[in-house]
Design goal:
Blueprint (H helix, E strand, L loop, with lengths): L3 H9 L3 E5 L6 H16 L3 E5 L17 E2 L1 H6 L6 E5 L11 H6 L2 E6 L10 E4 L6 H16 L6 H14 L10 H12 L4 H9 L4 H11 L3 E3 L3 E6 L1 H7 L11 H4 L6 E9 L2 E8 L5 H7 L3 E2 L3 E6 L3 H15 L1
Parallel strand pairs: 1-2, 1-4, 2-3, 4-5, 5-6, 8-9
Antiparallel strand pairs: 7-8, 9-10, 10-12, 11-12
Length: about 325
């Protein structure tokens, strides 16, 4: 059952927390997780931000003063009776901590907006229609203010939530943007969100080599049946331009945003025979359904999966299914 009140009551009655998100973190993962982290600190809880992945380069500004540790470092602390809070993770298997950290928590709180989420937590706040998990955290903090009669959102929390909202809604342009999203953005501004800092760092600070890689990736672009556009980034490209794998998700909209194209696909070679696939759709195709065919998931308009095969074979397989979807 979704229950904000039960989650809020539980948080206030407990002491030790681990917060984390899914593997390959993005803006909404980081914004929602960081805002819960700051909130728990604010109410004098012991909280550990644990994540086994590195942060994308354009999100580093958010975590300058935050101690993020990996699973091994957390286990060395020998913390017992902790509650695990997962943010923006639709699949328990994709939580970005070691399995024994998941298994040894006394309670798991699951806050998420993926339609594929199966309510794997002991306490769940899952709303598939929400624009972002950051919007769900915002709802939780506003409800906490109503129940406990004190201000929950400060400048740091507002900036983190604004980052999550802007990245998951494409700066309030995607179809998952609702009236509530604009209301949230307004209130975050009132509460001190550093909007220009978010815009400059998240959307306006790509390194020069990113654009050189983008240019080469665009040269691989193909349009199939006028409705599907596909492009790729190889390991050789990443090495040639010294760009990290985690910093290339911003390329996929270039495939989707072509006139008449409905599905945009980016194939990303992470290692030999490991191809990560980013999927975006424009108006009607369900790329979450497409991703599930290959064991992935996500949202109707944005999803991803992994194909364990060569780049060329992955391309053939993905295109075959994408053409069925349109």
């Amino acid at each position: 059952m979704n229950s904000l009140d039960n989650i809020i009551k539980y948080i206030h009655g407990s002491n030790d927390f681990v917060v984390t998100s899914h593997v390959n973190p993005d803006g909404d993962n980081i914004g929602s997780t960081l805002s819960i982290y700051y909130f728990l600190k604010k109410i004098n809880k012991n909280v550990y931000y644990v994540m086994n992945d590195d942060m994308p380069l354009n999100m580093q500004f958010l975590i300058e003063d935050v101690n993020i540790i990996n699973s091994s470092e957390f286990k060395e602390l020998k913390i017992e009776n902790y509650t695990l809070i997962t943010l923006d993770c639709g699949d328990k298997n994709r939580i970005c901590v070691d399995d024994d950290i998941k298994g040894n928590c006394i309670k798991l709180i699951n806050i998420d907006h993926h339609a594929s989420n199966d309510f794997y937590g002991d306490l769940n706040y899952v709303v598939a229609e929400a624009s972002s998990t950051s919007e769900l955290v915002y709802n939780l903090l506003i409800r906490n203010e109503e129940i406990n009669n004190y201000k929950s959102i400060d400048e740091n929390i507002a900036t983190a939530l604004y980052t999550g909202l802007m990245t998951d809604t494409g700066k309030l342009t995607y179809s998952n943007t609702h009236a509530s999203s604009f209301d949230m953005a307004k209130q975050l501004l009132i509460n001190g969100a550093q909007t220009q800092k978010v815009v400059q760092n998240v959307f306006g600070s790509n390194p020069f080599n990113f654009y050189k890689l983008l240019g080469e990736s665009l040269n691989t672009l193909e349009i199939i049946n006028e409705k599907v556009a596909i492009m790729m980034v190889t390991l050789d490209m990443l090495k040639r331009y010294n760009v990290d794998f985690k910093d290339i998700d911003g390329i996929v909209p270039y495939a989707r945003d072509i006139e008449n194209v409905e599905i945009g696909i980016l194939l990303k070679e992470k290692s030999d025979n490991e191809i990560k696939v980013s999927l975006r759709s424009k108006s009607y195709a369900n790329v979450s359904r497409l991703a599930k065919i290959f064991g992935g998931g996500g949202h109707i308009r944005a999803a991803g999966c992994t194909v364990n095969d060569s780049m060329e074979n992955a391309k053939i397989k993905i295109l075959e299914e994408a053409l069925k979807e349109i």
